[in-house]
Specification:
The protein is an alpha/beta fold. It folds into three domains: 1-138, NAD(P)-binding Rossmann-like Domain (Rossmann fold); 140-303, Succinyl-CoA synthetase domains (Rossmann fold); 306-462, 3-Layer(aba) Sandwich (Rossmann fold). Helices cover 42% and strands 16% of the residues. It has 19 helices and 17 strands. The protein has helices at 3-15, 35-42, 84-97, 114-129, 156-159, 174-186, 205-213, 231-243, 257-267, 276-283, 292-297, 299-303, 321-334, 343-352, 368-371, 375-384, 406-420, 431-438, 448-462, and strands spanning 19-23, 48-52, 77-80, 101-104, 133-135, 141-144, 149-152, 167-171, 191-196, 220-225, 248-252, 287-288, 314-318, 363-364, 391-395, 424-427, 443-445. Helix 8 runs parallel beside helix 10 and helix 14 (343-352) runs antiparallel to helix 16.
Length: 463
C-alpha cells in the first residue's frame, strides 16, 4: 500500500466518513459507547452505521454485530469505546476488517509512563502495518457538523445545539476543544469541525489542519497545542492556511517546565518550553493568544469583512461616561489613537446628543438612550461613516432593564457595522446583553479593556 496515499485518504475518513462502526455501542445515550451513535442519528448522518456489541442485540433501533469481522462492508471509520486492555486486539480487528481509520477513546497509555508508552507504541505498530490511521488514544474524537458525523462522546454537544459555520477547532485536549466549541456557540458563531487528537500516537494536529483546509467553507482555524512532534508537517499545514488566506489563531500551552510536566501527564506530550513551536507559529503568520477566552472571543473579528490598518483610529461609543473613560485608557494602553472626527460628524452628533454630553470621541450617549432608542444606531452610524474612523469600540452598561430595547440596539448596531465594512468590538458586563449582540455576529467581551485589547491584537496580526 502507498503509505502517503493511505494517510491522505484516511484523514478524509476521520473528517468525512462514508460509513462508521461503533465497537462497544450502547443503548444508553449516557454511556460513552452510546453517545456517538445517538449524535450520529440525531444530527442526520447519512452514511451506513454498524453498532458492534458482545450480544449482537439491536442498539438504538439499529441492528448490531458481534464483531467487526461480521460487518457487510469495510467501514471508513471505527469508533473504539473499549477498555485500554482490549484496545490492541480491536485495532488489529480494524485492520482485518479493512477500516481506513479508527478513533480510540481509551486513556491509560503514554500519559501513564514507560509501560503506557510501550503499549501505545504497540497500537501504532499494529495500525501502521495495516495502513490504518489511528486517532488517539485518550481523545474525545471528532465532529463534522456539516454532515452530522459527530464521532464523539462529548456531553457539550447536548448542551449547546450545533450550528454549522466557518470555524474549525483543532485541539490536543478534548476539554479545550469542547469548551472552545461551547464558547463559540455561546457567542453566536457556527462551527464546522471540532477535532481533538489526545495522545497523538499517529494523527496529529497538523494532519487535521491540512484536512479541514480541504473544506472551502472553513475560513478560520483555532488551535490548541501542547507539543508539535513534527514541526515540518505543522509548518506545511500552516503554510497552506496562509496561502489560502485562512487565519489561524493558536494557544500554545506547556511553555514552562511545570506546564511541560503536566502536559506529559495529560497527553504524554513533551511541551513547548524550548520556543521552537512559538517561532514556527509566528513565522507562518499565526496569532498567538494567551487564553481560551481570547482564542474564542476574537473569532468574530476574523470572520467580519473589515480589515483595519496596523494602528486603527478608534471611535468609542457608550451610554456610560465611565465606560468612555475606561475605553480611552484601553486605547492608550494598546497604542491606538482616538479618531479625530470631522466637523460634519461633530455637527451630526451635536444634533443628536444633549448639551451635557460634551465629548465627541469618546461619544457619551448618557441616559438619553433610555428616552430615544434610535440614538444608538444614529450615533454609531455617524462615527462609522467618518473617514477618520477606522474601527468602533462600543460598550453598553445597565441597559437590560425596562425601557431599553436591547434586541433593537443589537440589530441596528450590527447593521450599521456591517454596512460600514469596518471592524467593531462590543463590551458589556451583562451576559444577556453580550448574547444579544453576539447573535448578530459582533465580537463581544466582558470589559472595555478586553475588547480594545482584542481589536489591537487583531489589527497588528493582519498587518
Amino acid at each position: 500500500m502507498n503509505t502517503v496515499l493511505a494517510r491522505e485518504r484516511t484523514i478524509e475518513s476521520l473528517l468525512r466518513p462514508r460509513s462508521i462502526a461503533v465497537v462497544g455501542a450502547s443503548d444508553s445515550i449516557l454511556k460513552i459507547g452510546g453517545r456517538p451513535l445517538h449524535y450520529l442519528l440525531r444530527h442526520g448522518y447519512g452514511g451506513a452505521l454498524y453498532p458492534v456489541t458482545q450480544r449482537g442485540e439491536p442498539v438504538q433501533g439499529l441492528r448490531s454485530y458481534t464483531s467487526l469481522d461480521e460487518l457487510p462492508q469495510a467501514p471508513d471509520c471505527v469508533i473504539l469505546s473499549v477498555p485500554a486492555t482490549a484496545a490492541l486486539a480491536q485495532v488489529e480487528a480494524c485492520v482485518r476488517a479493512g477500516a481506513r481509520s479508527a478513533i480510540l477513546f481509551s486513556s491509560g497509555f503514554a500519559e501513564m509512563g514507560p509501560q503506557g508508552r510501550l503499549a501505545q507504541a504497540d497500537l501504532l505498530a499494529a495500525a501502521a502495518e495495516g495502513g490504518l490511521r489511528l486517532l488517539g488514544p485518550n481523545t474525545i474524537g471528532t465532529a463534522n457538523f456539516g454532515t452530522g458525523a459527530v464521532l464523539s462522546f462529548a456531553s457539550i454537544y447536548q448542551d449547546f445545539a450545533p450550528q454549522d459555520g466557518p470555524v474549525a477547532v483543532v485541539a490536543q485536549s478534548g476539554a479545550v476543544g469542547a469548551s472552545a466549541y461551547a464558547m463559540l456557540r455561546d457567542n453566536g458563531l457556527g462551527v464546522r469541525y471540532v477535532c481533538t487528537t489526545g495522545n497523538q500516537a499517529d494523527v496529529e494536529v497538523s494532519d487535521f489542519v491540512q484536512g479541514v483546509l480541504d473544506d472551502p467553507t472553513v475560513s478560520l482555524v483555532l488551535l490548541y497545542l501542547e507539543e508539535a512532534r513534527d514541526l515540518g508537517a505543522l509548518e506545511a499545514a500552516l503554510g497552506l492556511a496562509r496561502s489560502r488566506g485562512v487565519p489561524v489563531l493558536a494557544l500554545a500551552a506547556a511553555r514552562s517546565a511545570s506546564g511541560a510536566r503536566m502536559a506529559h501527564c495529560h497527553t504524554g506530550s513533551e511541551g513547548t518550553s524550548d520556543g521552537r513551536l512559538a517561532r514556527t507559529l509566528e513565522a507562518q503568520g499565526c496569532r498567538l493568544v494567551a487564553s481560551l477566552p481570547e482564542l474564542t472571543a476574537s473569532a468574530a473579528l476574523y470572520l467580519a469583512a473589515g480589515r483595519p490598518p496596523r494602528l486603527p483610529r478608534v471611535a468609542i461609543v457608550s451610554n456610560s461616561g465611565a465606560s468612555c473613560v475606561m475605553g480611552a485608557d484601553a486605547c492608550d494602553a494598546q497604542g491606538l489613537a482616538l479618531a479625530q472626527v470631522s466637523p460634519s460628524t461633530i455637527s451630526e452628533l451635536d444634533a443628536l446628543l444633549p448639551p451635557f454630553s460634551r465629548s465627541r470621541n469618546p461619544v457619551d450617549l448618557t441616559a438619553m438612550l433610555l428616552a430615544d432608542a434610535a440614538l444608538l444606531e444614529r450615533s454609531v452610524s455617524a462615527v462609522l461613516h467618518d473617514p477618520n474612523c477606522d474601527a468602533l469600540a462600543l460598550s453598553l452598561l445597565a441597559v437590560a432593564g425596562t425601557g431599553y430595547d436591547v434586541p433593537r440596539f443589537a440589530a441596528e448596531t450590527a447593521a450599521a457595522v456591517h454596512a460600514s465594512g469596518k471592524p467593531a468590538v462590543f463590551s458589556s458586563p451583562d451576559g444577556r446583553i453580550r448574547q444579544a449582540f453576539a447573535g448578530h455576529g459582533l465580537a463581544v467581551f466582558a470589559s472595555e479593556t478586553d475588547a480594545v485589547a482584542a481589536l489591537g491584537a487583531y489589527a497588528r496580526h493582519h498587518a
